[in-house]
Design brief:
Elements: H1 4-19, E1 29-31, H2 37-49, E2 53-58, E3 72-75, H3 79-95, H4 99-106, H5 116-130, H6 134-141, H7 155-170, H8 174-194, H9 198-218, H10 229-234, H11 239-246, H12 258-267, H13 271-278, H14 280-291, H15 304-321, H16 325-331
Parallel strand pairs: 1-2
Antiparallel strand pairs: 2-3
Helix pairs in contact: 1-2, 3-4, 4-5, 5-6, 6-7, 7-8, 8-9, 8-15, 8-16, 9-12, 9-15, 12-13, 14-15
Pfam families: Cas_Cas02710 (PF09670), Csm6_6H (PF22205)
Domain Csm6 6H: 82-165
InterPro entries: CRISPR-assoc_prot_Cas02710, Csm6_6H
Length: 346
């Protein structure tokens, strides 16, 4: 028989028959020594696919075949092959932002030639970063030895990502740190949207939108969680606006939300505030959809169209916040492995 598929299916059917037998608990050992090359190859592949023991019979072949009485059973240790398949699964899971499954798979790898510690640190770094735990992410990513072969195609991106995390963790510039955090949050929302989790994605965009105003207000020494009226007066904010804020005092503090943040920026003559006021109707319509989300105050599910529309507004404001925002977003975009083999897609 020289039809690979037919041979494979014949072996597969027998494995299923024996594995699911209710009479006995069979141990399946597959000997691929005899038969045509196609039969041997298909048996070996089927055995690997179903994780069965593979053997071949060796011995004295001086007569062209194994002489009776000299037979030796050679058990094939396939751990290296299984670990290579595991690496393919890890790359696929990593590209899908499924970092914990990557860690679980890595913990079962036994091939010492695989740089397991660096791969574990890589996955732990991006898992932490995905959860906005920047210090943990930096601690793990700095331990990755990017000179190893497993990181060849992502070396450059890892350096960019490490630079971004380094600025978040160690930068003395509050504005630079905040801009990288904002870029991380925007990329986080994009990753959620790529997973079709639009409610999650929009929730992160809303926080990004809020953060843009808060970052800009810090330039005036204003905290939206604790408004200092004297600072507003120094910046010539109108008495009417201040009086309106004073009515909201609770526990001795004035706290304002997204809308008031931008209206205050407008009072300060800030371009971000002006943009908000000029587009207030459009923006409120967009944020209202978020408020109706099942992850906010409503029961509605959000769509890709809702996400794309909101993302456009957030990116416009983020770029107005800092001229280097495109650079920050690029550096905080998670690296991806290049998937070349078709088997990696399974």
């Amino acid at each position: 028989m020289d039809d690979f598929n037919s041979c494979f299916e014949a072996f597969e059917a027998k494995i299923w028959e024996l594995d699911y037998s209710t009479d006995k608990n069979y141990e399946i050992i597959m000997d691929y020594t005899s038969g045509t090359k196609t039969m041997s190859a298909s048996m070996a592949c089927c055995g690997m696919f179903y994780s069965k023991d593979l053997i071949s019979i060796g011995g004295d072949r001086s007569t062209g075949e194994v002489s009776a009485g000299t037979e030796i059973i050679n058990y094939q240790n396939l751990y290296k092959i299984y670990d290579k398949f595991a690496l393919m699964r890890i790359r696929n899971n990593f590209n899908s932002n499924r970092f914990m499954p990557c860690i679980d798979i890595l913990n079962h790898i036994v091939d010492l030639s695989i740089h397991k510690d660096s791969l574990l640190n890589l996955c732990k770094a991006y898992y932490s970063w995905d959860n906005m735990e920047f210090e943990k992410a930096y601690e793990h990513l700095i331990k990755v030895d990017i000179k190893e072969i497993e990181f060849a195609e992502i070396r450059r991106d890892i350096k960019k990502n490490l630079n971004a995390l380094g600025n978040i963790v160690k930068s003395k510039s509050v504005n630079l740190k905040n801009c990288y955090i904002l870029a991380s949050l925007i990329n986080n929302s994009i990753r959620k949207a790529e997973e079709y989790k639009y409610d999650d994605a929009i929730a992160r965009l809303y926080r990004s939108f809020e953060l843009i105003a808060q970052i800009e207000l810090t330039k005036y020494n204003i905290k939206s969680s604790d408004i200092d009226i004297s600072v507003l007066k120094e910046n010539k904010v109108s008495d009417e606006f201040i009086e309106d804020l004073e009515k909201t005092i609770e526990d001795g503090k004035i706290r304002i939300g997204l809308s008031k943040d931008f209206l205050l920026l407008n009072e300060l003559g800030n371009d971000l505030g002006k943009y908000y006021v000029e587009n207030e109707s459009l923006i409120k319509n967009t944020t209202q959809k978020r408020n109706n989300s099942i992850l906010a105050h409503g029961l509605e599910s959000q769509t890709k169209e809702d996400f794309d529309h909101f993302l456009e507004i957030v990116l416009t404001l983020a770029r107005k916040l800092d001229k280097d925002m495109n650079k920050f977003i690029k550096e905080t975009k998670f690296t991806k492995f290049e998937i070349k083999l078709k088997i990696n897609a399974f």
